[in-house]
Amino acid sequence: MALVVQKYGGTSMGSVERIRNVARRVARTYDEGNDMIVVVSAMSGETNKLVALCNEMCEFPSEREYDVMVATGEQVSIALLAMCLQSMGYKAKSYMGFQVPIITDSAYSKARIEEIDGTKIREDLKNGTIVVVAGFQGIDREGSLTTLGRGGSDTSAVAVAAALNADVCEIYTDVDGIYTTDPRIVPEASKMEKVSYEEMLEMASLGSKVLQIRSVEFAKKYGVVVHVRSSFNDNPGTLVTKEDADMEAVLVSGITYDKNEAKVSVMRVPDKPGIAAKLFSPLSEANITVDMIIQNVSHEGYTDLTFTVPRADFKKALKIVEEAAAKVGAAGVDSNESIAKVSIVGVGMRSHSGVASKMFSTLSNEGINIQMISTSEIKVSCVIDDKYTELAVRVLHEAFGLAKG
Ligand code: ASP
Ligand code: MG
Q1: Which residue lies with its CA nearest to atom 5 of ligand 1?
Q2: Nearest-atom index, ligand 1, CA of 151
Q3: Which ligand 1 atom is nearest residue 154's CA?
Q4: How many domains does the chain have?
Q5: CATH code for position 10
Q6: Does residue 12 line the site of ligand 1, with CB under 6 A?
Q7: pTM for the whole structure
Q8: Are residues 121 and 27 located together in one domain of the fold?
Q9: Could you list the residue range(s) of the whole structural domain that residue 359 is in?
Q10: Which of 245, 202, 132 minimizes the C-alpha distance to 375?
Q11: pLDDT in tens, 252-307
Q12: How far is CA 177 from the centre of its chain?
């Protein structure tokens, strides 16, 4: 007998009929002899409606009241699921986050879970009750309702699994698992059987539609095994778990891309101590995160500096950098919004050489120019012209042998 946490997202909970389907799945796992905690999201589209209603009421809704509002979506779905299970003859009980309680900090709309009191849930489980918990929400120490950020039910589920020491946390969604790349670009992309926490974090752009990234950080910290799978079939999905020897044998596990960055270059910056700080401090003060940075070798006392920022912050960043560049006596600022970052990810890179050079030659064979490169232990990223994104993803997927069997 195991303790299983199952989480169902908005699509799986999208209608009364779909909730019945969820209840049948929950009941089946329970009947196999497991203790069950089910964490659910609001019915699909509901949270968006609630957010829209807040924005219709006023331009800048207070964050506290925003959370009171958007937390209602999950209240509907826990009640419906618990009712359905009861009508099927099972003992079931719903909990809002505050009833558990799931204690968070007070950062409304992006609160972090600090503590979960599992006492009541444990008692319910002991007498055979299926516990249904509202995802996405908690309560702070002052007693105000909080929410965890969009997609936060995944994090609720992993946190509940960690707090109650569950054997597995199954995240049911509308896709079969995590793929080696975006199947819309590469139809031959294959489902990964398992992926390490570190890889999953690096593949945020692939996985973030499937798993809230914070839930992966949580799973990693507490060693929760997460199984991502579809609520519409019985196929095994993808296990997100700690690194093992099989994973290391694979050179590259996945290819990701990101079209949400822009590039800024500062030309002929005087090469002396303190200049980088003078350029980057105003950006961090404006809360703009800088991703890749390249500083060229200096030449006659001057150097060029190039970096990327989120495209959404591009205009703001450019203005700040132009001012800072003038102050430090740089020759000028150049920029480019039409870039993309393509990355290869895999824990196998730690123990194999030649992975980066294979990436570079694959791109160059297609005549794709690499504008910037950055590397971490398990990732190599290249900035390229964004019109080549799809081509780059396709040839890299092929070069590293990731297509289906
Ligand atoms: N209902 C929330 C949202 O739409 C939380 C979730 O679905 O995970 O963001
Ligand atoms: Mg989700």
Answers
A1: 151
A2: 8
A3: 8
A4: 2
A5: 3.40.1160.10
A6: no
A7: 0.88
A8: yes
A9: 244-405
A10: 202
A11: 999 999 999 999 999 999 998 999 999 999 999 999 999 999 998 989 999 999 99
A12: 14
